[in-house]
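Lecture notes, unit on protein representations.

Consider one protein chain, 270 amino acids long.
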Amino acid sequence: MKYLETASEQNSTGKLPYYKSTGNEIDVFEHAHKKKLPVLLKGPTGSGKSRFVEFMAARLGLPLVSVSCHEETSAVDLLGRFLIKGSETVWQDGPLTRSVRMGAILYVDEIAEARPDVLVAIHPLTDYRREIYLDRKNESVSAPESFLLVASYNPGYQRGWKELKPSTRQRFISLQFDYPNSEVEEEILVAETGATSSVAGKLVKLGQKIRNLTELGLIESCSTRLLVDAAKLIVSGLPSRLACEVAIVQPLSDDRDTVQALKDIVSLMI
């Protein structure tokens, strides 16, 4: 499977997915959608980018199609291809084409990982044309008013050849995401997991401590997502230190010395 496709709408109760705003990102997104301007979300892993897009799709009442890019994802995977079914050859739209036809929000996750041919296919959606061209069908598909292209990447992690090119980055308006302050992050943990304020507070302090340990050389630091995972395990009854080890420490590193250093920090703070 070379891409991940999901659909997001308000659930049967009419409630929006939980999302805690940390700035003016909701207002900016709504204005971008109104003016049909593509949006780029920049920020570290686990800082709420994907949840924000899910929330906004539900808030605007639009379907959401998510594509997770990597180096094997090709333009054909996203645009579509001819398939043989029985004695017939039929065309099957890819997720990018389906999202345009539907007037959905198309979320391209980790766009810096995308191959050049994928970026070439996406570029016409980012300017006045707002269309894609299916060369195998000789067909142009124009995006309806409701369609919006949203992409994300992690500028702290992407380095060297994986850095997003300025020619692509400047086709979007950009929103910067980061880990929330301690008060907001604690509120997120309580709302997402049902953890007590005491447990959430300790986890938030642990997360902040790890984020400040630059000497460990972690490629990715302790995200809000990891803290949520740990809180869920604690709420389910798993011992707190064990929950932190499997949800925070082990996902952050495979180096034995680093893992031991992180476990020592957990023992001191949890």
